[in-house]
Amino acid sequence: MSVFTTVSHAQLSDWLSNFTIGELKSFQGISAGITNTNYFVTTTQGKYVLTLFEQHSLDELPAFLSLMAHLANAGLPCPKPVTANSGRMVLILNGKPASLVSCLPGKDIEIASPEQCEQIGRFMASMHNAAENFSDELPDTRDQAWFDSVLQKISPKLSSEVLDLLNQVFHKLSAADFSDLPQSIIHADLFRDNVLMDGNHIGGVIDFYYACRGHCLYDLAIAVNDWCHQEGKIDDTKARALLTGYHAIRPLSEAERRAWPLMLEKAALRFWLSRLHDAIFPTSGELTHAKDPNYFKKILEWHLAHEQYIGQLWLAS
Prior knowledge:
The protein is of the alpha+beta class. The protein folds into two domains: 9-102, Phosphorylase Kinase, domain 1 (2-Layer Sandwich); 114-313, Alpha-Beta Complex (Aminoglycoside 3'-phosphotransferase, Chain: A, domain 2). Helices cover 43% and strands 16% of the residues. It has helices at 9-16, 61-73, 114-131, 144-154, 160-174, 216-227, 236-249, 254-280, 294-305, 307-313, and strands spanning 24-29, 37-43, 46-52, 91-93, 96-102, 183-186, 195-198, 201-205, 212-215, 229-230, 233-234. β10 (229-230) and β11 form a beta hairpin. It is globular and about 60 Å long. The relative contact order is 0.14. The mean pLDDT is 93.
């Protein structure tokens, strides 16, 4: 969430006339994140979050917003899209598709506690259960073809050491078979900066624009890699708390237990690749927040060195 597309007061005020939410009082750009443009918007009737989509097309977005509405209606702490007077949830603002959603309580955190990790596990399992029957198609935009294309694009810019490690992990994961693992609609980006914590409780989970149908275990691995990371490794207590919270709502299968170490590596690889790409080919913006690729390189290397330890400790009965 950065500001790549600026919006004037007059543009936003005119755009908001499509909704029945009062008059514009103020708005402020949000600098965290790296993909879309976001603003806090305050009107005479409340506070909202405005998103201008930098990569998604107008046709793609209704499914994401329908998912958010589906989860909010199921009682999960997710933003609820605001529907325009025309009945649409996405309108063009300054040349970009844009949406408005409810602003939820809480704030993102720098370091998670075990109690907060457990709550994330419980939320994720509840989300997977609630979204299992979601009917709209949400394809994975970070599939194997994406992995291949990004690696091909950045390879000429990488050192031989980094390229050797990437190729090693690619070869290993290409031989893995995840076909028997349970699937649902997954968040696929459940980082700490996409969760608003209100003490040890979740005030809101945001940024569903990478959501897709995929393996539940992959979603879980993405969360563990971020929420439980500490000084280049995964913290045992936090990882066990997150997995315990998840397992209490949606018990992990034996196939998922076996695949767990490899799925952690796949999740680390995805975000290492995307951050390498963004570091090599940066996108300019008014407020931007670049993220360090080495964060996930270190996590991936730690997973590779501790596969047996991970499987035995964190998923012990």
